[in-house]
Amino acid sequence: MSMIKYRIHEVAKDFNVTSKDISEILTKYIAPPKNHMQVLENNELDVIFEYMTQHNQVESLAEVFNTNAKDSDKTEPKANSENKPNQKKPAENKNNAGHSNDKRNGDKSVERSNNKSSERTAPTHAEQAKTEKKNTTHQPRRVAEKRIVDTHGGASVNIEKYNEKFEDMAGESGGNNFKHVHKEKITSRSKQRQNAQSSSAKRRQEEKDKMNRLQLEIARKQQLKVEIPDEISVGDLAVRMKKTASEVIKQLIKLGVFASVSDVIDYDTAALVAMELGCKVEKEVIVTVEEKLIDDHEDKEEDLVPRAPVVVVMGHVDHGKTSLLDCIRNANVASGEAGGITQHIGAYTVQIGGKPITFLDTPGHEAFTSMRARGAMVTDIAILVVAADDGIMPQTVESINHAKAAGIPVVVAINKIDAVGANIERIKQQLTEYELVPEEWGGDTIVCPISAKKRIGIEDLLENLAVLAEVQELKANPDRAAKGTVIEARLDKGRGPIMTVLVQNGTLHMGDIIIAGTAVGRVRTMINDKGQRITDAGPSTPVEISGLSEVPKAGDTFNAVDDERMARELAEERRAQIANSGNNSNKKVSLEDLFSQIQAGEMKSLNIIVKADVQGSAEAVKSSLEKLSNEEVRVKVIHSGVGAINESDVMLAATSDAIVVGFNVRPDNAARDVANRSNVDMRMYRVIYDCINEVEAALKGMLAPKYREALIGHAEVRETYKVSKVGTVCGCYCVDGKIQRGCSVRVLRDNVVIHEGELASLRRFKDDVKEVASGYECGMQVEKFNDIKIGDVIECFVMEQIN
Fold first, then answer.
1. Helix (H, G, I), strand (E, B) or coil at 622
2. How far apart are CA 729 and CA 8, in angstroms?
3. How far apart are CA 759 and CA 601, in angstroms?
């Protein structure tokens, strides 16, 4: 189908308007035209025709045909002469007179027109010649048939038929080729009137619907695009949508969100508001400096090559961790260490059957947990060293739980099998209690009896490590920028900041720009574990490097980058984040917000660490808590033990998003400080049912504590006095905080609660005082408790009401 070029000025001429009017219509509903010579598309013509139809309505259709009748009067005689050449001129005059009478007598115009149509006569030959000459000189563009319409309601016109003709006409590209409208025969005036009214109403409704659809389509094409980030304030959202803040707040209220102009809402809520207000929503992608600087794309499978496994050795003190590594490295380093305790973190690479294995030597599991707390999953396999003559000890249990929390396989090395009293089968039986079932017993835990001093079973242990590493299919891409973890960092007086790093992916080159935490610099020297200077270090390779601006933290991730200026900018951003948020940036789980996290789908399991005064209590609390699991959340006790809550417990809780539950025990000072910095929730109980009920209420969302315990100070008992009719009076020294008269107290003996009650009296010298500050001595008496000994600690606290 060929397209007719229909320009703006031609449309304006046909509608008898200016080109500016047509341009304004296009500007308002579609887009501003370039000039009046622009060729219009079909959709643009549809908009113009629709607009002109809506804004140029006539009172009656007679006006349309009267206008056409004036043009057709001059051509009517010729048509009549051709049809009736023998009629006379007087008949024509009579017909004209009848026509004028029709105009004056509108009620009878249609009937007279029908009666006198037979009386019309043809014009004379002279007039015929004159008309033919006139027609020869000028041919009109349109020839409309003369039509007489009764406008007084006596007869009605078929409006629906005209409307159909008009829509056909408007759909054509030019709109100039009007079709002749044939005269409708009137059969019944009442029927025609009803049809005309219904047709007119139907036409108006159709045109109204069509205009509404047109406006919606135009609005959709011109829909405002709004980019929304992950979080945005109500005021900023209103500005981006070009709406008032009150409109946004009203929409938020409809959604059940009550927020002020300064409140921050999430992306999902903001997107719903924007869509309700007619905006097109797009997610704002904020590219940070870190994303620009650090290449963090996924490696392709064809680029990956096998890498060496990284093995960590864990276990109880003096069970032989360093001796095992010494045996493996064939270097006697254990004898040079003070007290048999490893002095520094080190990493070593050994060849086993021609394949390298990297060993991470840590001073116990604390450093391992510290690195994992910073998100550094550096190890692939854990070797658990257990002394055959000593069995599983508390630190051994902690090591097992740390390895399980990290999700790495455990290989058990039963050391000192040559010692007196060694019992390998007893060790295996103890391992099953912690879900480590040996392979020979039908489990999947590799257990290797060894003697590090006599080199017994070492080859078997190494072979099992190689097999386990091969099963894991550990791979990395050496052909990319280096990325790894800081194992150790220190400040050397002559060389400056020194750090030992483990390259986990990519290859580190001499001279690379690296950033580790807030430290930035270039690699000046690179020394491997054998003390040799090297220029390149691939995946799973430990090296010691220098050249950084400051000493990073152990566990920080380092990256090799290309832009030093941008790296320093990123380091400044990280310093600002540390200054603003401190160490409490990560939100930990607590019983108060447990139910809300479960409802939001953020919690699938509740991890709990249980510490009690005796083993029986710990087992009872553990089994009771695990029975609280339901379909929505699973309660999992990841560690249980006997004794005071220590720093290791809190660090495990911080890395595993766990809650620490203490039963008749208290945290030591180091654990309390770490818990405050890491925002770990610690709960202390003396009755097991209180613990169970509180956790169960938290799972159901019914926990609403009204009071919270606030520690105010600790006092150390340095002397006791027996006073008749009074009881035991303690001579105490306020270690920290302050002691208030009338406060609640706990008596701790080796961080185990032996009594909880009220402070009966508080004196300085012989005077009763309201409080005693830190660093002062005082006399204290605990109400209804006299079994106080020198060295006990009195913990003072008050209950604060939560608003």
1. helix
2. 106
3. 45
Answer whether 778's CB lies under 8 Å from 772's CB.
Answer: yes
What integer is the mean pLDDT of 348-353?
Answer: 80
The string of pLDDT tens digits covering residues 90-137 is 444 444 444 444 444 444 443 444 444 444 444 444 445 444 444 444
Instruction: Report the pLDDT value the prediction gives residue 354, as an integer from 0 to 100.
Output: 79
**Residue whose pair of structure tokens reads 């006399």 in the numeric block:** 779
**First vs last C-alpha separation in the chain:** 78
Paired sense of beta strands 381-387 and 310-315, if any: parallel
Write the secondary structure of 7-23 as one string of H (helix), E (strand) and C (coil).
EHHHHHHHCCCCHHHHH
Could you give phi then psi for residue 310, rounded to 5 degrees?
Answer: -110, 120
3-state secondary structure 207-225: HHHHHHHHHHHHHHHCCCE
- What sign has the CA pseudo-torsion 642, 643, 645, 648? negative
If we measure between CA atoms, which residue out of 523, 533, 526 comes closest to residue 564?
523
The Cα–Cα gap between 35 and 37 comes to 5
Beta sheet of 634-642, edge-to-edge order: 634-642, 605-612, 658-663, 682-685
Neighbours of 204 (CB within 10 A): 12
Cα separation, 183 vs 648, whole angstroms: 102
- Residue 559 backbone phi and psi in degrees, to 5: -135, 140
DSSP-derived pairing of the beta strands 727-740 and 777-782? antiparallel
pTM metric for this prediction: 0.50
Burial of 169 (C-beta count, 10 Å sphere; 0-12/13-18/19+): middle
Q: Alpha-carbon distance 478 to 306, whole Å?
A: 10
Burial letters 596-626, b for 16+ CB under 10 A, else e: ebbeeeebeebbbbbbbbeeebbebbbebbe
What DSSP designation does 316 have? S
Which tens digits make up the pLDDT trace of 624-672?
888 888 777 788 888 888 888 988 889 888 888 889 999 888 888 888 8
Start-end of H helices in 704-754 = none
